[in-house]
Amino acid sequence: MEATPSLACANKCVFCWRHHTNPVGKSWQWNMDDPLQIVNSAIEQHLKMIKQMKGVPGVTLERLTEGMSPRHCALSLVGEPIMYPEINTLIDELHRRRISTFLVTNAQFPEKIKDLKPITQLYVSVDAATKDSLKAIDRPLFGDFWERFIDSLTALRDKHQRTVYRLTLVKGWNTEDIDAYFNLFSIGKPDFIEIKGVTYCGTSSTSKLTMENVPWHADVKAFSEALALKSGGDYEVACEHVHSCCVLLAKTDKFKIDGQWYTWIDYEKFHDLVASGKPFDSKDYMALTPSWAVYGAQEGGFDPIQLRYKKERNHHKKSTQSTSIPG
């Protein structure tokens, strides 16, 4: 389930898929919905969307039924979710229903990161590695955006659950600064670095991006391998998802055990740990990575159990006979 408790953001990123139709601000200044109402409404809207897939060719009853019981929630659909004043109460409500939480923050609210309750996985968007390039790509509202960015990475270091630097590569904008990106590793010491190619979202008066700015998966792989090499073994390329143009670096000493990667999540264990109320960290709910998800696997991250449905298209030849068109 994809959702957000806040449409607003403190950045105006050049690759934002909303083309800046959403509000911006440095602090919360809008009417606030109740956390329970947001969760209930999110699930309700999710179910409506899933029901629309009933009868669609290629959609199995098993997958349709599974989709009707959301187990995971990505709080990253749009905006800056961490701005929402009751974010911790909302997280509690999701966890009470044993729905996992994946939250992405744009690294402009370090105090909010410090106050955030344990979640399944916390991402910080690292859209650039230098002050000038971050200003050009994220177009932040805050004058002290770089200080806030560094403070956010520092706050991430003190979290005990799974933490991620999320790098969105924009060809011609931020794909050359290997050394500068590496320098940021020691600040946040994330469990993972997720590197993905930017998604082109069409033309807009607010963005100059074109398809030329979208890297190939080979470009993302080359960048990831260079970054892993720069880390001197602290991080290695662990997984890839070819059809998402995405590569994952993982902390070697934490998630590689006896030559095998444990980058996946034991969700039931996570919810049990949350319910216990006792402190825990990311190693307590890690799970073995399946062979098809490991970097370099022939499947490229695509689960071989899943079958891709290809629609049969019968294109009838156009008639050469002239036909009158009414009206």
From TrEMBL:
User: What cofactor does this chain's UniProt record say it requires?
Assistant: [4Fe-4S] cluster
**Which GO annotations describe the biological process of this protein?**
wybutosine biosynthetic process
Keyword vocabulary terms for this entry: 4Fe-4S, Iron, Iron-sulfur, Lyase, Metal-binding, S-adenosyl-L-methionine, tRNA processing
One MF annotation (Gene Ontology) recorded for this entry: 4 iron, 4 sulfur cluster binding
* Catalytic reaction annotation: N(1)-methylguanosine(37) in tRNA(Phe) + pyruvate + S-adenosyl-L-methionine = 4-demethylwyosine(37) in tRNA(Phe) + 5'-deoxyadenosine + L-methionine + CO2 + H2O
Q: Which residues cross the membrane?
A: none
Domain Radical SAM core: residue ranges: 1-236
| Name of protein | Radical SAM core domain-containing protein
